[in-house]
Amino acid sequence: MTVPLTYFGVHLAFILPPLLILGWLAFRRDQAWWGVRPLSGLGIMICLAVVYTTPFTNHLIPGEVWWYGEGAVVATVWHTPIEEYLFFVLQPILTAFWLFQIPATADRSLAIPHTHRLIGVGGGLSVASIGWLLTGGTSTYYLGWLLLWTGPILAIQWGFGLTYLWAVRRPLLVAIAVPTVYLWIVDRVAIELGIWVISDTYTTGYTLLGLPIEEALFFLVTNIFIVQGIVMYLWLLDRIHEVPTLSRALTRFSTSSNEP
């Protein structure tokens, strides 16, 4: 049975409209983040999202952890639909444009305590370790691979800026929560319409209002990646003078770029 709405239709109906509205608001509002710095951070997040997520989906899709309804996608590259690759680009933009409405900043030095770095790295690696153990089970296979995939990024981000992220935790929470809940709703609608189907075999069976917890967790952690990554990137740029080597390199680059 052909699905009533295609994957590309999901982008047109649910992703592009709020993305365009939020982008326009960020561009127009003086209080919002906009310009070279936040947009370059977004560009970096998009590149990392495509590079890091591509092997993940191309490992799980051929294992039938999830699949797509008849006529739901136009074509696939490797094992992943082109609409999925497009989502790797659109989700960071959507989430970032929401983040830009509520800038999260604090006056904190880059020199955070070593114990905080160790706690951050240890927390991320613990998530990955739990994931590795869960990949051995059938019903925890999706959850295990998701946690294993998540852990290294959390270890890097928390190891670099756990102290700073805690200092801006309130706007950070809002920046993560709103697009996450929205994408949960979109995902639930798409599953209900049969655009994609999540395997009962490789999931725990626990749901959040009908949404498999693995799917809910995926959107949560990916939005955490995006928000934390951009916030810490801008923090680094604001405090770059604390790293003399990088500061001198940027100064030389800026000088040479301005020469005729």
From TrEMBL:
Annotated organism of origin: Natronorubrum sulfidifaciens JCM 14089
Instruction: Name the lineage.
Output: Archaea, Methanobacteriati, Methanobacteriota, Stenosarchaea group, Halobacteria
Top-level taxon of the source organism: Archaea
> Where does this protein act, in terms of pathway?
Carotenoid biosynthesis
Q: Where in the cell is it found?
A: Membrane
- Report a single Gene Ontology molecular function: intramolecular lyase activity
Q: What does the UniProt keyword field contain?
A: Carotenoid biosynthesis, Isomerase, Membrane, Transmembrane, Transmembrane helix
Q: Does the keyword ATP-binding apply?
A: no
Keyword Membrane found: yes
Q: Which InterPro entries match?
A: Lycopene_cyclase_dom (IPR017825)
What cellular component terms from Gene Ontology apply here? Answer: membrane
What protein am I looking at?
Lycopene cyclase domain protein
Q: Which GO terms describe its biological process?
A: carotenoid biosynthetic process
For this UniProt entry, which segments traverse the membrane? 6-27, 39-61, 85-106, 118-135, 141-165, 172-196, 216-237
Domain Lycopene cyclase positions: 12-96, 169-223
Membrane topology, as annotated, equals: Multi-pass membrane protein
